[in-house]
Each structure stands twice: as structure tokens, then as C-alpha cells.
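yo, Intracellular septation protein A is done. seq:
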Amino acid sequence: MAKKPQSNKNSILLELLFYAAFPYIIWNFGREPLGDYVAMLLSTVPGIVYTLYRFIFDRQFNITGIFILGSLLIGTTVDLLSGSAEQMIINGIYLSLFYTFLYCILFIVKQPFSLYIAVDFAYLQGYDRKDSKTLFFQKGIFKWFQIIQAVFIIRGLFMAGLTAFLLNKYGIDGYGDMLIYKKVAGWIFSIIVMGLFFNINNVVQKHTKQSHENKQPETQSSEVVTESV
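structure:
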């Protein structure tokens, strides 16, 4: 248990390197000899490599993992087909809005993606998927997954709006700063989401404890009836 904080620090450091620092360096030093578009494409490579590494390392062959790999494939394809650095950023905005639209649909039909992330995580901890899903849909727990889903929607809209604003204000020359601003904003939303997931964990523990306490009197009553017979 004592190693977890160090592991979290390492993960944050690696994300900073592969999603912000390396792309920023590649963009700034590569755009002059390679051109804006090629430099921008190459700046996405560290993030792709790290995401694939985490996918394989965590063995996330589940809904969450499939979504990560699928979005990575779609995003890379869109980038390659963009044709220019500016169009690549614009297409990224449209792609972000597309994912946000999907999150909205899942929110409306009450099948929050956040719940299935929790089911996958619980499965990695050794819990049955069906039992976890049934538990998470219980009243008092489910609403928190809807709240996280709402945060996903707000994050998608905000990040798309931020990207559009920065592109309009600074143009393609501001791409390096754009990476930093988006990463900081992404961390803020990640902290909010993680806080909500921790809260759900507490709610689940209280719900499980309460259910266990409610079953105990029934068990004791059954024992009394059996002894009487």
C-alpha cells in the first residue's frame, strides 16, 4: 500500500512527459525543418506510444480498453487525413464534439460510460462484472455515475471551446502553448472526476455495509425459527 503514492507520482510524471513535454519539444524544434503539419503529426507520437503501452501493460481488454484503443485509432486516422496543421486542430475539435455527443446520448438513455469504467476497474480487482453492474445501478449510487457523465460532457465542450479560442487568438503558432493549456485543463477535470469516483467508492461501501446489516436480522430470525422447529 505504501508504494501507491510513488506509483501515482510516476504516472503523473510520465503523462507530463509523453502528453505535454515531448510533444512540445517536437513541435518547437521540428516545425522549422519539417513544416507545421509533419511536426504536429510527430508531436502526437509520444502520446500514442504511451497510451498503447498503458493499454498493454494494464491489460485493459474490456469496454474501457476498447474505447481507448478505438478512439486512439480514430484520432490517428483523422490526423493523418487532415492534410494541414490547422485542419488537424479543427478536426480534433469536431472529434471532441462527436465524443461529447456520444456522452450526451449515454447520459440520456441512462447508460453512463463512467459506470462501465467502474465495472471494468472492479473486475480488475476481482469482482464479477454482472454483480458490480447490478450494484452500481442501485438507487443512491447510480446518480453519482450520471454526475460524472455530466462532467465528461462539460469537459468535452470546454476543451473543444478552449482549443477553438486559442486557435482563433494565436493561430497555428500558438500550438505549443495550446498543448500546455489543454493539459492543465485536462488535469483539473481529471481531479474532479477522480474525486467523484472516490466519493462513489465511499457510497458503495456504506451501501454494502447497510445491506449486510439488514440481512443479519433476517438470518438470525431464520435460525430462531429453525431451532423452534
